[in-house]
Amino acid sequence: MSKAIFIRNASQLVTLQGSSNTPRVKGEMSELGIIEDGSVWIEDGVIQAVGKDEELLVKYEDRLSEVEVVDARGKLVTPGLIDPHTHLVFTGSRENEFNMRLQGATYMEIMNAGGGIHATTRRTQAATHEELFQQSFERLNQFLRHGVTTVEAKSGYGMEWETELKQLEVAKQLNENHVIDVVPTFMGAHAVPKEYKENPDEFIRQLTEEMIPKVAELGLAEFNDVFCEHGVFTPEQSRMILEAGRKYGLIPKIHADEIEPYEGAELAAEVGAISADHLLKASEKGMKAMAEMGVVGVLLPGTAYFLMAESANGRKMVDLGVPVALSTDCNPGSSPTVSLPFIMNLACLRMGMTPAEVITATTINAAHAINRGSEIGSLEVGKKGDITIFNVENYMKLQYSYGINHTDTVVKNGQVVVRGGQLNEELSLS
């Protein structure tokens, strides 16, 4: 049983209380539930009390000698950050493509030339389980240093059963061995393998009749994702793949309208997807449909930034009532970053979102994007003791001083795992 933790005297304690059942929309995204001089008591990994420091001092005055005190004076305290869209498990980098892109090559041109997803797929297919585990483990360490306590992790760099299975098994092992919670998504429909380019129906048959049933039987994923994009999977093919996953208990997610308008947002609403991600080219009709159905829009401004593309219209989505979340889209081709705080900066600078909205988008709304709103994403009694402490006095300064990792302390399941910006070596995280 871990020692109780008393986080005290936060300059601002962002609670985001009251949205465990549904994500926040419109003006709700700016209502952070801030407590000044706020404190949190965590015991057995669970939040036991949240309030003004003086209130908790009275409540726990007889136990102060036995608790670990974390001084948050002059600092910002938030729920642990949540990254709801990553391609965590992979090997290899693609800096050569970065150079090609700077010389004018497009994303699809690079992929059609044998780069892109296919380049990472070749390397991931060739990698051993242990190689993938070690590299992804270190990636999680970097996420943790940036204040992230939960990540979603997609497969998709296999596009054949053995490697998809390997990625999902690595994700499971990471979840069991790293302090960060890893939430698995099956994305066998990341692209059509070259050998099936002239016969995509056969690959879709393998996905829907062989791979998806096996993933469900083995309990290796909670979600089923598809890249609905011109030249990848059509809306009709995407619907077939998502409905096959639902038949076996996998919740639909969708990469939608990233490169051109393709009715992916509309499809997400029609199939009841938990989230639609990217959405750079989503139509207003699609945005409104998502808002009506409560589909979380997971926006990835780092991807647009790295691809030198126009960002998704986050401001419009918030105003239309789409529950917006934010993510790194950590992957080797279009967003090689683990810095969710920088993504928050970009959302303000490139998508017109406010500092308050991006806090909501990386906590409680991100939790809802991975079906975890009742467990994490806000500081409320009964939720996991996942907390990030930033070395700034208020949430606006977190976005004002951009491109800096302000993470000072991270508490995961009631344990201090990052202190003074450094990993707690007692937890053997490296």
Fill in the keyword field for this structure.
single chain; 430 residues; alpha/beta; 8-stranded parallel β-sheet; 7-stranded mixed β-sheet; 16 helices; 19 strands; globular
Layout of secondary structure:
Layout: E1 5-10, E2 12-14, E3 34-35, E4 38-43, E5 46-52, H1 53-59, E6 68-71, E7 76-79, E8 81-83, H2 95-102, H3 107-112, H4 117-126, H5 129-145, E9 148-154, H6 161-177, E10 181-189, H7 200-218, E11 223-228, H8 235-247, E12 251-256, H9 264-271, E13 275-278, H10 284-293, E14 296-299, H11 301-306, H12 314-320, E15 324-326, H13 340-351, H14 355-361, H15 364-369, E16 387-390, H16 395-400, E17 407-412, E18 415-419, E19 422-423
Parallel strand pairs: 1-6, 2-7, 8-9, 9-10, 10-11, 11-12, 12-13, 13-14, 14-15
Antiparallel strand pairs: 1-4, 2-3, 4-5, 7-16, 16-17, 17-18, 18-19
Helix pairs in contact: 5-6, 7-8, 9-10
How would you portray this structure in words?
The protein is α/β, with parallel strands linked by helices. The chain has 16 helices and 19 strands. The chain has helices at 53-59, 95-102, 107-112, 117-126, 129-145, 161-177, 200-218, 235-247, 264-271, 284-293, 301-306, 314-320, 340-351, 355-361, 364-369, 395-400, and strands spanning 5-10, 12-14, 34-35, 38-43, 46-52, 68-71, 76-79, 81-83, 148-154, 181-189, 223-228, 251-256, 275-278, 296-299, 324-326, 387-390, 407-412, 415-419, 422-423. The strands form three sheets. Strands 8-9-10-11-12-13-14-15 form an eight-stranded parallel beta sheet. The protein is globular and about 70 Å long.
